[in-house]
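Thread: "does anyone have the structure for this chain?"

Original post by V.I.:
We have the sequence but no experimental structure in hand. Need at least a predicted one for the grant figures.
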Amino acid sequence: MSVVYFLPTTSQRRTEKLIERRVGELHDNQTEKTRVNILTENVALIVIDVQYAFEEHKWGKRNNPQAEGNIARLLSAWRNSDRPVFYVRHLSLTPGSVFALDAHGSQIKAEVAPITDEPIIFKNVNSAFIGTTLEQQLHDRKITQLVIVGLTTDHCVSTTTRMAGNLGFEVYLVSDGTATFERIGPSGKHHSAGEIHGVNLASLHGEFAEVVCTDEILANLTVVAAEV
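Reply from O.Q.:
Generated one for you, tokens below.
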């Protein structure tokens, strides 16, 4: 079976630029109105599916190569301020899957790996809330604010973000702490990783979450620390 490569057309490139500009506007408006409320001492960082399986070539081209680095920055800030961190790890029920329990791909990447006492939520569907104890653990610890990062923007990150918003949590989705891959649509049209990423952020913003960047979250934590 031959592999068919799809090159973006002028129209697609124009669409991608519009999407990138829209995502940029989400950040540029920061000078007029902050999108991050005061983050409580109990705000939880949710790290979704940052696993070695996503390094396989089969996924295609990815955007945001800096995502793991930004997640590491957030983890450091959370740990230094003794705020709660929750990890979500996808485990596939399909034999031979790169996400199978005994596969290297199912392991959380070393640069963002959990440390002692940081809970790991195991899931086998897109949402971190389905078939898991995540919601109950958050309620037990009286957590109402969530900052979400991880992989991939349009699948498990998006699904978990939507459910978190529907469940009543105040959600912040970190745009440069998430990433995804290029896709081929049902009509055969190619969609770049940046396009997929941008459309999903635009869809989630203001409805299920506030889309922010790493620096905005870190700046807010610094302000809170200075006021304590």
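V.I.: this helps a lot. Confidence is low (pLDDT under 50) at residues 1-7, 29-33.
O.Q.: and The CA atoms of residues 62 and 219 lie 27 Å apart.
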